[in-house]
Amino acid sequence: MELKGKKVLVAGLGVSGIALCKVLDSLKAKVIAYDEKEYDVLKENLEEIKSLSIDFRFGKFKKEFLEGVDLVVLSPGVPTDSDIVKTAQEKKIELLGEVEFAYRFSKAPIYAITGTNGKTTTTSLLGEMFKNTGRKVYVAGNIGYPLIYAVMEAAEGDFIVAEISSFQLETIKEFKPKISCIINITPDHLDRHKTFENYRDIKGRIFENQREDEYTVLNYDDPVTWSLKNKAKCRVFPFSRKSLLENGAYIKDGSIYISVNGNAEKIIDIEEIYIPGEHNLENALAASSVAYLSGISADVIANTLKTFKGVEHRIEFVDEINGVKFYNDSKGTNPDASIKAIQALKTPIVLIAGGYDKGSEFDEFVKAFNGKVKKLILIGQTAKKIRDTARKYSYPEDDILFAGTLEEAVKKAYESAKEGDSVLLSPACASWDMFRNFEERGRIFKKAVAELRR
């Protein structure tokens, strides 16, 4: 793609947008960087690009921002029904999403992972499997390292493992992974995608350009994910925790097996997998399937599963103070993710929850408390909504506390906990009402726990 001298507008100046600006500048494009937020809000983000020859625009979108523009590249956070998108379409200006734009530069094959929950763990785990073969691998995408950086660095013989979100899949055109994977699909981001059916179909776009010599790996146990198989024009490879499969990855006699064309091979005994929980078994099956189909040996897969310790902010053990364990699950940004965290812990739980309202319902989340959650400490925009749902299912009002800050929530949680309990931050909500992102929320939680020792 020749961009020298072309006028390119980057919409959205988060992590991806900043990366796009840097790469476009290096490709000698004339870059316009736009965000609806004002400069003062974005000042910190813009530090690394402020010295580049970029034309910055902030605040409410104006049609003249697109005057003479050849290409608009959208960051994932910019909705497809926004004014900038509608205007670009009216003016017939080429419009590419960040992932689509990056894909067009890629020399290396991309192994793409999506799903509502488990994406980051599965992507990281798969990246480790590639790394442990001695291959040069880039782990990128929604995981925090922009895909555009990875494709610019990766050579033809390298590999890219990418976590891909529904926001990124909305705008693909030619994007075609070597192997794709959908771990699961449960309601999320309905404030953006409007209906669950829309959300499901956008997730299914991950394999829409793959053909018969390529694979998509799908969760056989999840009816919503498995229903997408009929749309696939490529080979479908299932994984299951519950059923024996003639062709796919499955559990038999306490071990993971993978069978391709009827030839089954044992990978590992489940008890040898380092990261705990049923949801992590699902992640292990998904990552192992993609690795095996890409030619990675059973030995390398097994050794990685024995040593991989999980990812930051996902049921991350933080500390134990006076017999009370603290876990950071700030990555629990929807009810289903937080249900999995509650299920993974075997002790009584003091739960810190609440945050930005994405339009989720919390009925299943509250039902999962199941006698395990002894105190509920609520923060953020959804605090009252979760409280009302908890009361609907007769959760004791005396066991529900509110906190104005996460630091206050941690203090209240510690005061409420006894030796043998776990304090779990698993908000079941996004972080944007109080924090820049879930990483910041997780770091503040860990700092607040450390303060308890002072």
Average pLDDT over all residues: 96
Q: Compute the number of helices.
A: 17
Q: Whole-number radius of gyration?
A: 23 Å
- Please identify, by name, the CATH architecture of the largest domain: 3-Layer(aba) Sandwich
* Shape estimate: globular
The CATH topology of the largest domain turns out to be: UDP-N-acetylmuramoyl-L-alanine:D-glutamate ligase
Report how far apart the termini are.
56 Å
Describe the structure.
This protein has helices at about 15-25, 40-45, 85-90, 100-105, 120-130, 145-155, 165-170, 190-195, 195-205, 225, 280-295, 300-305, 335-345, 365, 385-390, 405-415, 440-450; strands spanning about 5-10, 30-35, 55-60, 70-75, 95, 110-115, 135-140, 160-165, 180, 215-220, 235-240, 250, 255-260, 265-270, 315-320, 325-330, 350-355, 375-380, 400, 420-425. It has about 450 residues and is of the alpha/beta class. It has three domains: about 5-95, Rossmann fold (3-Layer(aba) Sandwich), CATH 3.40.50; about 105-305, UDP-N-acetylmuramoyl-L-alanine:D-glutamate ligase, CATH 3.40.1190; about 315-450, Mur ligase, C-terminal domain (Protein-Tyrosine Phosphatase, Chain A), CATH 3.90.190.20. Helix 6 links the parallel strand 7 and strand 8. The longest helix has 16 residues, at about 280-295. The model has no long low-confidence stretch (mean pLDDT about 95).
